[in-house]
Write a sequence for this structure.
């Protein structure tokens, strides 16, 4: 039970930020590269990567690097 509460706290914490919510909404349309996800935001790629890492830790997003391109997608994680 405590583990599920911690996981739920991570999900709500990740979604508490408007930038991360916008990233999740964009990923509802399909996978996207970090560069594509960064286009609507006025921030450096390292800053956007911090948001993506938060979403990954919460289990909402998965990413995969192929060559120089990191692609993100929504992650359906069930415990």
């Amino acid at each position: 039970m405590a583990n599920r509460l911690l996981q739920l706290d991570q999900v709500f914490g990740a979604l508490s930020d408007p930038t991360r919510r916008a990233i999740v909404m964009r990923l509802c349309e399909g996978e996207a590269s970090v560069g594509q996800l960064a286009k609507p935001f006025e921030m450096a790629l390292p800053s956007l990567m911090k948001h993506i890492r938060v979403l990954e830790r919460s289990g909402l997003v998965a990413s995969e690097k192929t060559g120089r391109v990191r692609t993100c997608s929504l992650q359906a994680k069930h415990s």
The CA atoms of residues 30 and 57 lie 20 Å apart. The mean pLDDT is 92.
